[in-house]
Design goal:
alpha/beta, seven-stranded mixed sheet, 7 strands, 22% strand
Length: 276
């Protein structure tokens, strides 16, 4: 595991207990992703009833109940690399809670009917994770996921750019690049699109605190280390003022990217991953 990836894991482990009360965006993204799954199920001529669902990056398990409501006969593998997040999930006879990394998913090849992943991919190496998902999917299996797009937190990025040239906001991959990556890997029926969601806060400090409470830290190796000084925070607040709304609130924009793809019916699963 890279140092950056290890830092992300530490951040999510620390955020586990307060995650649910702060993760407003994650809840909204979940509802919108479920709507995409519903549409696929409605459009399926054979009737879409997955035997096994992999909820990759399941966090504290928000997706489990709505997925079982839609697919009451399915088995769900709730997988995450944060042990503390997984500890928040209640036991259920149809749910297998699994501690695993998305870059090397601990499932058999060709064993998953539906891959469901809400706001995890942006913290990963996208190419590797998409390859792992494809390995895990059965021929004809579906992938539905969300990620963050390139316009996420553009207000915060712009405000920081007035202060220095260090990366203070993570770089996120555009929707078209994710789609191209999926197509290059041989996925079929690839659909990628995005939409903007704006949350509002009382201050810049509230924005940064909310990001911290959901584990969404800046993990760029070239980022500024250490705490932000009061002087710099005041300067950052001044530069952010241009975005303040008429209602007196501070906006934070997130670009929500959707990626839907299918593994070819003709393609067999790759060999089972052997652990070192």
């Amino acid at each position: 595991m890279s140092l950056e990836h290890q830092q992300i894991k530490i951040a999510f482990n620390r955020a586990a207990k307060q995650y649910e009360q702060h993760a407003v965006l994650q809840k909204e993204a979940l509802e919108r992703l479920l709507e995409r799954v519903d549409f696929d199920a409605f459009e399926s001529e054979q009737g879409f009833q997955p035997d096994t669902i992999l909820d990759l990056g399941c966090g504290t398990g928000w997706s489990i109940e709505p997925l079982l409501k839609r697919f009451p006969d399915s088995r769900i593998i709730a997988a995450d690399f944060s042990e503390n997040m997984l500890q928040q999930i209640s036991a259920h006879k149809q749910v297998d809670i699994r501690h695993t990394d998305a870059h090397a998913i601990d499932v058999h090849a060709g064993s998953i009917d539906l891959l469901f992943s809400n706001l995890m991919l942006q913290w990963c190496d996208e190419k590797t994770v998409l390859q792992e998902i494809k390995r895990a999917l059965k021929p004809g299996g579906l992938m539905h996921l969300t990620s963050m797009g390139e316009h996420t937190l553009h207000e915060l990025r712009h405000a920081w750019a007035q202060i220095d040239d260090k990366p203070h906001v993570n770089h996120f991959v555009p929707a078209n690049e994710l789609a191209d990556q999926a197509l290059r890997q041989g996925y079929e029926e690839v659909i990628a699109d995005s939409e903007l969601i704006t949350l509002t806060y009382g201050s810049v400090v509230d924005v940064m605190r909310d990001l911290k409470n959901i584990g969404a830290h800046n993990t760029d190796d070239k980022r500024a280390k250490g705490l932000t000084s009061p002087r710099v925070l005041k300067e950052l607040t001044n530069h952010y003022e241009q975005f303040r709304t008429e209602a007196g609130l501070i906006p934070a924009t997130f670009e929500l990217v959707y990626l839907r793809a299918k593994k070819s019916d003709r393609e067999q699963g790759l060999p089972l991953r052997i652990k070192d």
